[in-house]
Amino acid sequence: MKHDTVDVAVVTGIKHGDHFLNPGIPEIKREKFNKCCICGGPIERKYTPDGEMYWDLGENAEPVQVGRCCGACNMMEVIPARLAEFVNRNSQKEKK
Ligand SMILES: [Zn+2]
Q1: Where in the sequence is the domain holding 56, given as residue range(s)?
Q2: Domains of the chain: total
């Protein structure tokens, strides 16, 4: 499955300057992150303690959207929508 990506500037380190008035320049690299299908922002990457990336696909965005979303949207949108769906389903059962 192909995922939409979004370019993010990532600071990878500081290049040491040659003078005390020029202490250093941040080294910035543009990287492609998977794109959140709700807010359009980058999906955060998860790393092991050894610094190896093991997950960059975020969370399942259903029922809000079909696709993947970032952690913030999962907390703010997806989980409340799932709870609402669950509550509605149960209250419909009670009416029968
Ligand atoms: Zn998002």
Answers
A1: 5-95
A2: 1
